[in-house]
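R.M. (postdoc): so does anyone remember the format we settled on? I'll just put the C-alpha coordinates first.
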Protein backbone atom coordinates (compact mmCIF):
# COMPACT_ATOMS: atom_id res chain seq x y z
CA UNK A 1 0.00 0.00 0.00
CA UNK A 2 1.43 3.42 -0.83
CA UNK A 3 1.67 5.96 2.01
CA UNK A 4 -1.35 7.95 0.81
CA UNK A 5 -3.57 4.83 0.63
CA UNK A 6 -2.46 3.93 4.13
CA UNK A 7 -3.19 7.46 5.40
CA UNK A 8 -6.66 7.37 3.79
CA UNK A 9 -7.44 4.03 5.34
CA UNK A 10 -6.53 5.18 8.84
CA UNK A 11 -7.47 8.84 8.98
CA UNK A 12 -9.79 9.92 6.14
CA UNK A 13 -13.21 11.23 7.11
CA UNK A 14 -15.61 11.54 4.14
CA UNK A 15 -16.27 15.16 3.20
CA UNK A 16 -13.93 16.44 5.94
CA UNK A 17 -10.43 14.92 5.82
CA UNK A 18 -8.77 13.56 2.68
CA UNK A 19 -5.22 12.65 1.68
CA UNK A 20 -3.40 13.02 -1.61
CA UNK A 21 0.03 13.44 -3.10
CA UNK A 22 0.83 17.14 -2.92
CA UNK A 23 3.69 19.13 -4.48
CA UNK A 24 6.46 16.81 -5.72
CA UNK A 25 4.61 13.83 -4.29
CA UNK A 26 4.77 14.93 -0.64
CA UNK A 27 1.66 13.57 1.10
CA UNK A 28 -0.81 16.21 2.19
CA UNK A 29 -4.04 16.21 4.17
CA UNK A 30 -6.94 18.32 2.93
CA UNK A 31 -9.45 19.48 5.50
CA UNK A 32 -12.76 20.90 4.29
CA UNK A 33 -15.59 22.47 6.26
CA UNK A 34 -18.57 24.55 5.15
CA UNK A 35 -16.89 25.89 2.00
CA UNK A 36 -13.47 26.43 3.64
CA UNK A 37 -10.41 24.29 2.93
CA UNK A 38 -6.94 23.79 4.29
CA UNK A 39 -3.92 21.84 3.06
CA UNK A 40 -1.41 20.37 5.51
CA UNK A 41 1.85 18.76 4.43
CA UNK A 42 2.99 15.87 6.64
CA UNK A 43 6.54 16.87 5.76
CA UNK A 44 7.25 19.60 8.30
CA UNK A 45 3.66 19.56 9.71
CA UNK A 46 3.41 22.51 7.40
CA UNK A 47 0.09 24.24 6.59
CA UNK A 48 0.37 25.14 2.90
CA UNK A 49 -2.94 26.80 2.27
CA UNK A 50 -5.99 28.12 4.10
CA UNK A 51 -8.93 29.24 2.00
CA UNK A 52 -11.91 30.49 4.05
CA UNK A 53 -15.36 30.10 2.47
CA UNK A 54 -15.75 32.58 -0.41
CA UNK A 55 -12.18 33.93 0.00
CA UNK A 56 -8.83 33.61 -1.70
CA UNK A 57 -5.98 31.80 0.05
CA UNK A 58 -4.81 33.74 3.11
CA UNK A 59 -1.41 32.05 2.90
CA UNK A 60 1.39 32.43 0.38
CA UNK A 61 3.77 29.74 -0.93
CA UNK A 62 6.67 30.43 -3.29
CA UNK A 63 6.43 28.66 -6.64
CA UNK A 64 10.19 28.30 -6.36
CA UNK A 65 9.91 26.35 -3.12
CA UNK A 66 11.94 23.13 -3.25
CA UNK A 67 9.34 20.73 -1.74
CA UNK A 68 12.23 18.39 -1.15
CA UNK A 69 13.22 16.42 1.94
CA UNK A 70 16.02 18.18 3.79
CA UNK A 71 14.86 21.64 2.67
CA UNK A 72 12.26 23.87 4.30
CA UNK A 73 9.17 24.76 2.30
CA UNK A 74 9.15 28.50 1.52
CA UNK A 75 5.76 29.86 2.50
CA UNK A 76 2.65 28.57 4.30
CA UNK A 77 3.23 28.10 8.03
CA UNK A 78 6.67 26.62 8.77
CA UNK A 79 6.97 25.19 12.28
CA UNK A 80 10.19 26.50 13.85
CA UNK A 81 11.14 24.15 16.69
CA UNK A 82 13.00 23.39 18.96
CA UNK A 83 14.79 26.64 18.29
CA UNK A 84 13.89 29.81 16.46
CA UNK A 85 16.60 31.42 14.28
CA UNK A 86 20.19 30.17 14.45
CA UNK A 87 21.05 27.36 16.89
CA UNK A 88 21.06 28.86 20.43
CA UNK A 89 24.64 27.69 21.13
CA UNK A 90 25.90 28.67 17.69
CA UNK A 91 26.24 25.06 16.48
CA UNK A 92 26.12 24.55 12.71
CA UNK A 93 22.62 23.08 12.79
CA UNK A 94 19.59 24.03 10.68
CA UNK A 95 18.21 27.53 11.10
CA UNK A 96 14.80 27.47 12.87
CA UNK A 97 15.31 23.90 14.13
CA UNK A 98 14.49 20.59 12.51
CA UNK A 99 10.70 20.32 12.81
CA UNK A 100 10.16 21.81 9.37
CA UNK A 101 12.54 19.37 7.65
CA UNK A 102 11.28 16.11 9.14
CA UNK A 103 8.24 13.97 8.41
CA UNK A 104 5.46 14.07 11.00
CA UNK A 105 2.94 11.27 11.56
CA UNK A 106 -0.82 11.54 12.11
CA UNK A 107 -1.73 10.42 15.62
CA UNK A 108 -5.34 11.62 15.99
CA UNK A 109 -8.01 13.16 13.82
CA UNK A 110 -11.72 13.53 13.33
CA UNK A 111 -14.32 16.12 14.22
CA UNK A 112 -14.29 18.17 17.40
CA UNK A 113 -17.40 18.86 19.49
CA UNK A 114 -18.46 21.58 17.02
CA UNK A 115 -18.17 19.30 13.99
CA UNK A 116 -14.93 21.00 12.85
CA UNK A 117 -12.35 18.66 11.33
CA UNK A 118 -8.95 18.44 13.00
CA UNK A 119 -5.80 16.45 12.46
CA UNK A 120 -2.93 15.92 14.90
CA UNK A 121 0.57 15.25 13.59
CA UNK A 122 3.29 14.14 15.95
CA UNK A 123 7.06 14.25 16.04
CA UNK A 124 8.65 12.14 18.76
CA UNK A 125 12.31 12.36 19.72
CA UNK A 126 14.36 9.43 18.47
CA UNK A 127 16.89 8.53 15.80
CA UNK A 128 15.83 11.36 13.47
CA UNK A 129 16.09 14.09 16.12
CA UNK A 130 19.04 12.85 18.19
CA UNK A 131 21.72 14.42 15.93
CA UNK A 132 20.15 17.82 16.60
CA UNK A 133 18.74 17.83 20.12
CA UNK A 134 19.44 15.86 23.30
CA UNK A 135 16.02 16.33 24.95
CA UNK A 136 13.31 13.67 24.84
CA UNK A 137 10.02 15.12 23.74
CA UNK A 138 6.70 14.58 22.02
CA UNK A 139 5.53 17.44 19.80
CA UNK A 140 1.99 17.52 18.43
CA UNK A 141 0.75 19.97 15.85
CA UNK A 142 -3.06 20.16 15.85
CA UNK A 143 -4.73 21.89 12.94
CA UNK A 144 -8.47 22.58 13.19
CA UNK A 145 -10.61 24.09 10.44
CA UNK A 146 -13.81 25.93 11.37
CA UNK A 147 -14.74 29.46 10.31
CA UNK A 148 -11.06 30.04 11.13
CA UNK A 149 -7.81 28.11 11.05
CA UNK A 150 -6.40 27.11 14.40
CA UNK A 151 -2.85 25.78 14.73
CA UNK A 152 -1.49 24.55 18.07
CA UNK A 153 2.03 23.23 18.71
CA UNK A 154 2.12 21.28 22.00
CA UNK A 155 5.46 20.04 23.28
CA UNK A 156 5.85 17.67 26.22
CA UNK A 157 9.11 16.78 27.93
CA UNK A 158 9.02 12.96 27.98
CA UNK A 159 12.53 12.59 29.39
CA UNK A 160 14.13 12.80 32.81
CA UNK A 161 15.98 16.12 32.45
CA UNK A 162 14.77 19.63 31.78
CA UNK A 163 15.41 21.37 28.43
CA UNK A 164 14.80 24.75 26.85
CA UNK A 165 13.04 25.39 23.57
CA UNK A 166 12.22 28.33 21.37
CA UNK A 167 9.66 28.12 18.59
CA UNK A 168 7.54 30.01 16.08
CA UNK A 169 4.60 29.52 13.75
CA UNK A 170 6.28 31.40 10.90
CA UNK A 171 3.16 32.23 8.85
CA UNK A 172 3.51 33.76 5.36
CA UNK A 173 0.37 35.78 4.56
CA UNK A 174 -0.57 36.49 0.97
CA UNK A 175 -0.87 40.23 0.21
CA UNK A 176 -1.72 42.30 -2.88
CA UNK A 177 1.44 44.38 -2.56
CA UNK A 178 3.57 44.75 0.56
CA UNK A 179 3.50 48.54 0.09
CA UNK A 180 -0.31 48.55 0.37
CA UNK A 181 -0.66 46.76 3.70
CA UNK A 182 -0.60 47.81 7.33
CA UNK A 183 -0.46 45.85 10.58
CA UNK A 184 -2.48 46.95 13.59
CA UNK A 185 -1.89 45.70 17.12
CA UNK A 186 1.77 46.55 17.76
CA UNK A 187 1.51 50.17 18.93
CA UNK A 188 3.49 51.14 22.03
CA UNK A 189 5.38 47.87 21.87
CA UNK A 190 9.14 47.38 22.16
CA UNK A 191 10.91 45.52 19.41
CA UNK A 192 14.38 44.41 18.38
CA UNK A 193 15.35 44.93 14.75
CA UNK A 194 17.05 41.72 13.57
CA UNK A 195 19.61 40.76 16.17
CA UNK A 196 20.14 44.28 17.59
CA UNK A 197 20.81 44.28 21.32
CA UNK A 198 18.96 47.54 21.97
CA UNK A 199 15.18 47.64 21.82
CA UNK A 200 13.23 50.38 20.04
CA UNK A 201 9.60 51.28 20.54
CA UNK A 202 6.87 51.49 17.93
CA UNK A 203 4.80 54.57 18.72
CA UNK A 204 2.64 54.50 15.57
CA UNK A 205 -0.61 52.57 15.64
CA UNK A 206 0.00 51.16 12.15
CA UNK A 207 3.11 49.34 10.91
CA UNK A 208 3.67 49.94 7.18
CA UNK A 209 6.43 48.73 4.88
CA UNK A 210 8.96 50.46 2.65
CA UNK A 211 12.07 48.35 3.16
CA UNK A 212 13.45 45.17 4.72
CA UNK A 213 11.73 44.49 8.04
CA UNK A 214 12.73 41.92 10.63
CA UNK A 215 11.18 43.02 13.90
CA UNK A 216 10.84 40.92 17.00
CA UNK A 217 8.18 42.56 19.17
CA UNK A 218 8.52 41.58 22.81
CA UNK A 219 6.17 41.38 25.79
CA UNK A 220 3.17 41.30 23.49
CA UNK A 221 0.25 38.89 23.65
CA UNK A 222 -2.22 40.92 21.57
CA UNK A 223 -3.78 39.96 18.26
CA UNK A 224 -2.58 41.57 15.02
CA UNK A 225 -4.77 42.69 12.15
CA UNK A 226 -3.23 42.67 8.68
CA UNK A 227 -5.17 45.19 6.57
CA UNK A 228 -4.73 44.91 2.80
CA UNK A 229 -6.19 47.77 0.78
CA UNK A 230 -5.39 46.15 -2.57
CA UNK A 231 -7.28 42.96 -1.74
CA UNK A 232 -9.89 44.79 0.32
CA UNK A 233 -9.50 42.32 3.14
CA UNK A 234 -8.28 42.02 6.69
CA UNK A 235 -6.68 39.00 8.32
CA UNK A 236 -6.79 38.63 12.08
CA UNK A 237 -3.98 36.73 13.78
CA UNK A 238 -4.57 35.76 17.41
CA UNK A 239 -2.12 33.85 19.52
CA UNK A 240 -1.49 32.33 22.93
CA UNK A 241 1.49 30.79 24.70
CA UNK A 242 3.71 33.48 23.17
CA UNK A 243 5.08 36.86 24.25
CA UNK A 244 7.01 37.61 21.06
CA UNK A 245 5.59 38.45 17.64
CA UNK A 246 7.99 38.53 14.68
CA UNK A 247 7.20 40.56 11.58
CA UNK A 248 9.38 39.84 8.54
CA UNK A 249 9.69 40.86 4.92
CA UNK A 250 13.06 40.46 3.18
CA UNK A 251 12.51 43.20 0.58
CA UNK A 252 14.56 43.28 -2.64
CA UNK A 253 18.17 42.63 -1.68
CA UNK A 254 17.77 39.90 0.93
CA UNK A 255 15.15 38.18 -1.22
CA UNK A 256 17.54 38.17 -4.18
CA UNK A 257 19.94 36.05 -2.11
CA UNK A 258 17.31 33.41 -1.40
CA UNK A 259 17.18 30.72 -4.07
CA UNK A 260 13.55 29.81 -3.37
CA UNK A 261 12.27 33.35 -3.90
CA UNK A 262 11.92 35.18 -7.23
CA UNK A 263 12.51 38.91 -7.82
CA UNK A 264 8.91 40.05 -7.23
CA UNK A 265 8.16 37.55 -4.45
CA UNK A 266 8.85 39.95 -1.58
CA UNK A 267 5.87 42.06 -2.69
CA UNK A 268 3.50 39.13 -2.34
CA UNK A 269 3.82 38.16 1.33
CA UNK A 270 4.25 39.32 4.88
CA UNK A 271 5.27 37.04 7.74
CA UNK A 272 3.58 37.54 11.11
CA UNK A 273 4.85 34.94 13.55
CA UNK A 274 3.73 34.10 17.07
CA UNK A 275 6.97 33.03 18.72
CA UNK A 276 8.82 31.98 21.84
CA UNK A 277 12.09 33.61 21.01
CA UNK A 278 13.84 35.53 23.78
CA UNK A 279 15.73 34.40 26.85
CA UNK A 280 14.22 36.06 29.89
CA UNK A 281 10.98 36.77 28.02
CA UNK A 282 9.52 33.60 26.64
CA UNK A 283 12.11 30.92 25.95
CA UNK A 284 10.36 27.87 27.38
CA UNK A 285 12.01 25.66 29.98
CA UNK A 286 10.25 22.32 30.27
CA UNK A 287 10.85 20.15 33.30
CA UNK A 288 10.14 16.39 32.91
CA UNK A 289 6.45 15.80 32.13
CA UNK A 290 5.80 19.52 31.58
CA UNK A 291 3.99 20.74 28.48
CA UNK A 292 3.84 24.01 26.56
CA UNK A 293 1.41 25.03 23.80
CA UNK A 294 2.03 27.77 21.24
CA UNK A 295 -1.15 28.59 19.31
CA UNK A 296 -2.32 30.82 16.52
CA UNK A 297 -5.76 31.44 15.04
CA UNK A 298 -6.13 32.98 11.60
CA UNK A 299 -9.35 34.32 10.14
CA UNK A 300 -10.50 36.58 7.37
CA UNK A 301 -12.03 39.58 9.07
CA UNK A 302 -13.79 41.13 6.06
O1 LIG B 1 11.39 35.19 11.20
C1 LIG B 1 12.26 35.99 10.49
C2 LIG B 1 13.47 35.17 10.10
O2 LIG B 1 14.05 34.60 11.23
C3 LIG B 1 14.43 36.07 9.31
O3 LIG B 1 15.57 36.42 10.04
C4 LIG B 1 14.69 35.29 8.04
O4 LIG B 1 15.86 34.64 8.02
C5 LIG B 1 13.46 34.41 7.96
O5 LIG B 1 13.08 34.08 9.25
C6 LIG B 1 13.50 33.21 7.03
O6 LIG B 1 14.32 32.21 7.51
P1 LIG B 1 14.57 30.92 6.65
O7 LIG B 1 15.47 30.04 7.45
O8 LIG B 1 13.24 30.27 6.40
O9 LIG B 1 15.21 31.38 5.36
Amino acid sequence: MNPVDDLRKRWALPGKIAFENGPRGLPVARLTHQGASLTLSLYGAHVLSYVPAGEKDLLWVSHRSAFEEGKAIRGGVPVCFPWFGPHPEGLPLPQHGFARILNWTPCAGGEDENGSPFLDLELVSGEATAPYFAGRFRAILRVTLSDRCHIALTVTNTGTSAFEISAALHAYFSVSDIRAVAVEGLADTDYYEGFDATPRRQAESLLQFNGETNRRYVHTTTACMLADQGMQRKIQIEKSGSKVTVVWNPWVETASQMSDLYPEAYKEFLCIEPANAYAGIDIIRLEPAQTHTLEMTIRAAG
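R.M.: ...and that's the designed sequence above, right after the C-alpha coordinates. Also worth knowing: Residues 3-11 form the longest helix (9 residues). The first strand starts at residue 17 and ends at 21.
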